[in-house]
Amino acid sequence: MSPFTVQRPGLRLRIVAPAVLVAIPALALLVSMNLDRRKQAELEVVQKAQQLARLATVDQERLIEGTRQLLIAMSQSLDIREGNIERCSSYTHALIQQYGSTYNNLGFANLDGQIVCSGFGQPVSVADRPYFKLAVATRNFAAGEFGVGRQTGRPSLGFSYPVVTAGGVLKGIVWAAVDLERLNERLTDSRWPPDAKLIMTDRQGTVVARYPNWRTMVGKSIAHGRVTALIGSRASGTFDFEEHGAHEIYAFEKVTQPPDSGLTVRVFVSKEQAMTAANRTLYGSLAALGLVSILVMIGVRTAADSLLLRPIGRLTVASRQIAAGNLGARAASSTSIPELNELGKDFDDMAAALEEREAARLQAERERKNLEQQYHQAQKMDAVGRLAGGIAHDFNNMLTAIIGYCELLLEDPAVGDAQRSDVREIEKAGRTAAALTRQLLSFSRREIVEPVVIDLNEILTGMAASQSKPPTWNVLRASRADTCRRLRVNMFCSRSSMMGAV
C-alpha cells in the first residue's frame, strides 16, 4: 500500500459520524449560551460591585451626616459657647457615654488649636490636624484624615465644625473622632457578602476601613497603587483588574456629602468566584450533552449493526462463497428495512439462477464431451473404414482371381465330378466373400446400402455348409424351418450380426 493512500472510512463510521455531527450545533449553541451566561454573570458582578459601593457610600454619608448634626448641636451648646471648662467637660463626657460606640473622643478647641474640653485625657493641641485647619479656613463642616488620637491613642477619623458667636466671630471648633476600630468591627459583624472586599481611603490614600482583615491594612497608604492610579479623579466607575493571577471587578465611588470629605469607597469582587456558577452550569451541560451523545452513538451503532451491517455482512459472506464456487450459498437477509430485505431476496434469486445456469452448463459440458467422444469414435470408424476399404479392394482382386480359376476349373473336362463339387463350393464361398468385400467397399465409400429381401433358410444352410468342415469349430446344427419368413435387411449389417452370434 502506498504511504500516501488515504484510508476510506468504513460504513459504521459513516453512519455514526452524522450522529456526532448533530451534536456539534448543540455544542455550539451550548457554548454560545454559556458565553451569554458568562457575560450576564459578569454584568451581574459589575452591578453587584456597584450596588455594594453605593451602599457603603450611603452608609458613610449617613455617618458623616450624623456627625455633622452632632457637631452642629455641640456648637450651639451654652456649655461650650460660654467657655466653662467644667460644664464643657461634663457635657463632652456625657456625649461620649451616649455615642461611645461610634466616636472615641469629642471636644472643643479654641482658635489656637488647644483643646478646652474633651471626653478623655489632658488638654493637647490639634492645631496641626487637617480637620482643624479646614474648619477654621472654610468656617464650615470639614472632614479630616486618618490619625491616631493624641488623648486616646486610638486610630480615628476626625470631623469638625466651627463655633461662631451671634456676632459672627469665630470662637473655635468642635470636633468628633470616629473610632475606626469600631467602624471596622461593625463591617465585620455586618452581613457583608463573603465574596466581596471593601476598602475606604481618605484624601491622602490612607486606608481607614477594610473588609476583611482590617487590622493589617488600616493606617497604611495605597496612594501610589495601581488601583488608585486607575481611579484618578473620577467620582465613580468600574474596571477590570488582574493581579497575581486574580481577576477582579473594581467598583469605586467617592463620598460627595460633604463634597470635600476626600473619602473613597472601593469594592472589588472576584470574577472567578462569580463565574463559578456559570462554569458549573457549562460543565454540567457539557457532561449531559456528552452523555446524550454517547448514548445516541451507542444506539445508532447498535441499530446500524442490527439493521444494516449484519445483513450486509451476510450478503458479503454469501457473495464471497459464491465467488469461491459455492453456488448454494444464500444471504437469507431478515431486517426491518424493506430495501435490504428486497436486496437479500434478489441476491438469493440471483444465486439460485446462477446455480441453475451452472447446472445447465455442466450438463451441456457433459453432452459436449459425449459428442466429442462420438466424433472421435466416428473418426476412428472412418479411419477403420478407409483401412477396411483398402484391404477389401486388395482382397477383392484376389477373390476375382480365385473365382476366375474356379470358373476355368469348372470348364476343364479333365476335372472330375467330385472335384467339380468342391470347386463349386470354393466358387460359391469366393462369390460370398466378394459380396462381403463389396459391402466393405460400400461402407468405406459411405454409400447408402439399400436393404434387400433374403431367405433366412438359404443363408443358414449356406453358412452351415461352409463352416461344418473345420474340426476346431463348433458344429452349427440348423434345421430347415418352412415357416421362417423372408426378411428385408441390410445384408452387410445382418451378416455381421449373424457372424458374431455364431
Task: Give a verbal description of the structure.
With 502 residues, the chain is of the alpha+beta class. The protein has eleven helices and twelve strands. The chain has helices spanning 11-75, 78-81, 85-99, 130-138, 180-189, 226-231, 271-323, 338-411, 417-444, 456-467, 491-501; strands at residues 103-110, 115-118, 142-148, 155-164, 170-179, 196-201, 207-211, 236-243, 246-254, 264-270, 452-454, 487-489. Strand 3 and strand 4 (155-164) form a beta hairpin. The chain is rod-shaped and about 220 Å long. It starts with 10 loop residues before the first helix and ends with a helix.
Present the secondary structure layout.
Elements: H1 11-75, H2 78-81, H3 85-99, E1 103-110, E2 115-118, H4 130-138, E3 142-148, E4 155-164, E5 170-179, H5 180-189, E6 196-201, E7 207-211, H6 226-231, E8 236-243, E9 246-254, E10 264-270, H7 271-323, H8 338-411, H9 417-444, E11 452-454, H10 456-467, E12 487-489, H11 491-501
Antiparallel strand pairs: 1-2, 1-5, 3-4, 4-5, 6-7, 6-10, 8-9, 9-10, 11-12
Largest sheet: 5 strands, antiparallel
DSSP E strands, number: 12
Classification by helices and strands = alpha+beta
Number of helices, where a helix is a run of at least 4 consecutive DSSP H or I residues: 11
In N-to-C order, the SSE pattern is HHHEEHEEEHEEHEEEHHHEHEH
Shape: rod-shaped
User: What amount of the residues lies in strands?
Assistant: 15-25%
**Strand arrangement, major sheet:** 2-1-5-4-3
In round numbers, the mean pLDDT is 78
Evaluate the radius of gyration. Answer: 70 Å
State the helical fraction: 55-70%
Low-confidence stretches: 471-478, 498-502
Through-space gap between termini: 79 Å
